[in-house]
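Objective 1b of the project was to move from sequence-level analysis to a structural picture of ligand recognition. The entry below was assembled by the postdoctoral researcher (A.K.) and checked by the PI before modelling. It contains the amino acid sequence of the target and the SMILES of the bound compound, pyridoxal-5'-phosphate.
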Amino acid sequence: MTRLEDLPIRDDLRGLVPYGAPQVALPVALNVNENTHPVPDEVASDILDSIARALRDVNRYPDREFTALREGFADYLGNGLLPEQIWAANGSNEVLQHVLQAFGGPGRRAFGFTPTYSMYPLLTRATGAEWVAGERASDYTLSPQSAADQVAAADPDVVFLCAPNNPTGTPLPIDVITAVYEASRGIVIVDEAYIEFAPRDAVSAISLLGGRERLVVSRTMSKAFAFAGARVGYLAADPAIIDALRLVRLPYHLSALTQAAASAALRHADVMLGMVDEIVAQRDRISATVEALGFRAHPSWTNFVLFGDVDDPRATWQALYDRGVLIRDVGIPHHLRVTAGTAQETTAFLDALASLESGA
Ligand SMILES: Cc1ncc(COP(=O)(O)O)c(C=O)c1O
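Corresponding predicted holo structure:
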């Protein structure tokens, strides 16, 4: 049997571990921050019709510039954005990879405030760049001063700001973003994967784009849009950044079927996002209930809750697993993370957790 380390693999990939959240068929899967509500029936048929029409032309390569989809995202984001300021790819992971391929790479450095999204270091290293981890306060917040000082000291080519942050749920004040931008010379990516779950009056970094040509705001259809399986992420930035991304993408990277599905889903954005309030209600219910059970719930503007004061996260994770409930051990000592599911799934999780606490 050949082992990985026997292959002539790049030296800088030796010893790395791939992304590997467990994919197991448990009745209640709340471990990867998906939207556990299916695509509503009322829009599913229109999406299917669009895919069917695109299928008739799949003998041809798709529109390399995904023109209709970029127009759809520009409309959805508003703020006067133009289609030439939009980029999209197969999930925001690929969007972030494109940014790193263009602005990271060998001899360069990317920076993020940990704990944060676990793919940032993996994507960074896969492009041959160095990953530098900054720090947060003990409650996972960031102040403008501390964030700017750390970025100035690290002098990165690419900065990741996860707003709100995964896996902690922490909101990111807009003045932290502007302070980091001022303190840096590189690309500043604000990853707004969960922004639709923030309070309605929360300010998006999209509003900061004017006059900031190094700022990039990435989003995804995987969370609030309930479209994780379709793999669609996007970003908004200066048109010159989009030109840079064209240099590194594979030709025709977004399939005609993906483009058709995503454009159709965007036409029904209101319905697709219809479950957001319900998910936010379940998230807040989780926070209140785990607190009542004696855990510490960290404030969350996302569709998940990180809770602390867990004596033995591994044992609690396993006991929940044995009861058919899959959540996430993100490796933060004494913490676990759970996604807000449907009311029924959330109840199943909370009941299972309560039964462990009562020794039932
Ligand atoms: C903060 C953050 N960014 C990006 C992603 C990637 O999402 P996708 O590639 O499905 O768009 C995730 C997924 O969990 C995430 O948590």
